[in-house]
Amino acid sequence: xxxxxxxxxxxxxxxxxxxxxxxxxxxxxxxxxxxxxxxxxxxxxxxxxxxxxxxxxxxxxxxxxxxxxxxxxxxxxxxxxxxxxxxxxxxxxxxxxxxxxxxxxxxxxxxxxxxxxxxxxxxxxxxxxxxxxxxxxxxxxxxxxxxxxxxxxxxxxxxxxxxxxxxxxxxxxxxxxxxxxxxxxxxxxxxxxxxxxxxxxxxxxxxxxxxxxxxxxxxxxxxxxxxx
Length: 228
Prior knowledge:
Elements: E1 8-15, H1 19-35, E2 40-47, E3 57-68, H2 71-77, H3 81-89, E4 92-105, E5 124-132, H4 137-152, E6 157-164, E7 170-177, H5 180-189, H6 191-203, E8 206-221
Antiparallel strand pairs: 1-3, 1-4, 2-3, 2-6, 4-8, 5-7, 5-8, 6-7
Helix pairs in contact: 1-3, 4-6
């Protein structure tokens, strides 16, 4: 599938008042989506992304990343029981609608995103996801803080958060940028990021990894009181 065929990817982030009901809702949401949901949908915990350890976890913000064949399917999913349940429980939400530009790697042994390319002059987003090898986890966590500090200091970054299917082992990030140039500047000139990329083949940190870049076509709502 290419971007021209219409694949739409949506990230929803909800703030909740109470953590325990949200954690229970994660389990029921995953079960419902397996029985009847988009081709690819992940209910995710969120965090600061500073260390990718348990202390990063933000139990008051939860996310749902979903893929859809086209815009009509994406719009229809907004009325799905899982989305409605989170909407009803949330005093604040952020919805980022995107079209894939480039993707490499796998998530849960699948390639969920199109690789469509094409020019886009507006905001872009990036999703990274990796499944850590347990034997390499400690060395990876030691390398993360420098990368995170560089990321959050970057001009052009609108929002960045950690996302994951579990507190440990399944690590990911979502970042939203002013434009492709700002994202490229971080990827190319960020010394800490470049060092981790260079070390990855030798360290063999990941059992599975994915990077995807998206053209952002819509942003609704806010995150922590601010619209990115």
